[in-house]
Amino acid sequence: MDTYADLKAELEKRQNTLHHRLKEFDDLGLAHGFASSVASGELSQYDNHPADSGSALYEREKDVALHEQIVLELEDVKHSLDKFEKGTYGICEATGGEIPRERLEANPTARTNVQYAKMNNHYSRPAEEDVLRNFDQFNFDSRDDETEFDAEDAYQSVARFNELPMVYEDSSLDDNEELVGYVEEIEGFLSTGIEGYSGDENVQYQKNVHYDQYLNEK
What we know:
Elements: H1 5-28, H2 36-40, H3 50-86, H4 101-106, H5 114-119, H6 151-159, H7 167-170, E1 190-191, E2 204-205, H8 209-217
């Protein structure tokens, strides 16, 4: 294992650092998620603003999460150091092959080679993404097996009662249809590249509501 002597020294140094950080958590009492009243040193939270209590709760949750992360990382470091004792460091635990040194230098606690790690990376997307989508997932206009009143129909029914102009069409026009937010009227539909103005030949016209109103006024 002399080949990995530098990596062993790095792991031992990291282990000492993690032990020191855990001791700091324990000394400050940050390793346990006790009540916010105990954490703040107050007997009651009755006279505290909810925002203050929310901030304190966030800090407590962050401390607990950081403590858990340190514990998990320390377990990985200990596991790697134990493999030095057994003479198996640098050996893929899944295939029995040798882990390239480049991978170990990048991640000294690696247990498998890159190929196996990629095949077994079962990262799951957040459950909220199953429902946080646009109206397309509830639009059944193009399907013959679905004829119900879908989400798109519901939006269209409600939008009929909207007395304000649509945001994506007339967001920069007020009730009097006057251009707002521009020094000159032409600034509403003239544009240049990212480098700025470089000649009249590089100025582009955007045919939007500002352009139409400008032509109608002339």
